[in-house]
Design a protein that fits this description.
Distance between the termini: 91 Å
GO molecular function: enzyme regulator activity
Number of helices: 5
Organism: Fonticula alba (Slime mold)
Family: Belongs to the cytochrome c oxidase subunit 6A family.
Subcellular location: Mitochondrion inner membrane
Order of helices and strands: HHHHH
Largest sheet: none
Strand content: under 5%
GO cellular component, one term: mitochondrial inner membrane
Length: about 160
């Protein structure tokens, strides 16, 4: 019904040609005792360039990136003592520390991401200082701080 006219179909149409194709495929596959296919010079050059590039990135990682990480960590830890908040330059803007009610965690005045080392609020600092003094003077923990609110501005 269909005539095998194209070269590829005609080449592998008979059983004898199919056996030749199978032998060719078996010789192409690399394996123990089997010959590897001939490699083109461009493929060999590409493999050599890839090996050179891999060696370069290996050396850059071990002799560049890793020592740089340790050196930068040492510099950062050496300068940590200079990283403190200057409380004299604090400007109390009206939109700072404005919330509608107490937070359900902690003492109710600090947000979940509050950091005493970085966030400074003079009113809150004064309130916490009073709480620390009252805790030191009495054996019971004061509960007034849980209901106290700090500088809630009214927007009308």
């Amino acid at each position: 019904m269909f005539r095998a006219t194209s070269g590829a179909v005609r080449r592998f149409s008979s059983a004898a040609n199919m056996r030749q194709a199978t032998k060719y495929v078996e010789t192409v596959r690399a394996g123990p005792g089997r010959p590897t296919p001939p490699m083109l010079e461009s493929e060999r050059a590409a493999i050599e360039r890839a090996a050179i590039a891999a060696n370069l990135w290996y050396k850059l990682t071990w002799f560049g990136a890793i020592p740089f990480t340790f050196i930068s960590a040492a510099v950062i830890f050496a300068n940590l003592e200079h990283q403190h908040l200057d409380e004299t330059n604090y400007v109390a803007y009206p939109y700072l520390n404005w919330h509608l009610g107490p937070f359900p965690f902690g003492n109710g005045l600090r947000s979940l991401f509050w950091n005493d080392n970085n966030n400074y609020n003079p009113a809150l600092a004064e309130l916490l200082k009073k709480e620390a003094e009252s805790v030191a003077s009495s054996p019971t923990i004061p509960t007034g701080l849980k209901t106290a609110f700090v500088n809630y501005p009214t927007y009308e």
